[in-house]
Amino acid sequence: MTTPQAAAMPPFHLAFPVHDLAEARRFYGGLLGCPEGRSSPDWIDFNFHGHQIVAHLAPDECNFSAVSAVDGHGVPVRHFGVVLSMAQWHEMADKLRSAGTEFVIEPYIRFKGEVGEQATMFFRDPSGNAIELKAFANLESLFAK
Question: Rounded CA gap, 33 and 51, in Å?
Answer without folding.
Answer: 13
